[in-house]
């Protein structure tokens, strides 16, 4: 949602961004149907270069709700009570802010409905020497362990 093209390389239209997020969720579900996906609603920001962020943030619950209605195990994670005073530069948390954010994630993970996290679907993943699971999807996109990106938190056996 940043106004600077050097940062928002795919544009800064909130509806387009929400569509891309929905497509990403759908792709995760397609490749890992037993996935539990926690979709983070991005923090508010004091950055004046992100005036469209509130519109994007408002679109996320609806796209999550639709996928949940379709039977996907998707939850919107709302950080609206996160104190913006814990952001050191209007975007990145302070060290204490990261600790607080970890507490938020822990609370959200504990709210995953019982029965959603099951034995993985498919073959057991091949493990690398260091024990970290790795799976390469047909489009060559790699997912390592638990994927955390601003917008999607993906828990899946990979």
UniProtKB/TrEMBL annotation:
SUPFAM superfamilies registered for this protein in UniProt: SGNH hydrolase
InterPro entries to which the protein is assigned, alphabetical: Ester_Hydrolysis_Enzymes, SGNH_hydro_sf
GO molecular function per UniProt: phosphatidylcholine lysophospholipase activity
Protein name: SGNH hydrolase-type esterase domain-containing protein
Origin species: Fusarium oxysporum (Fusarium vascular wilt)
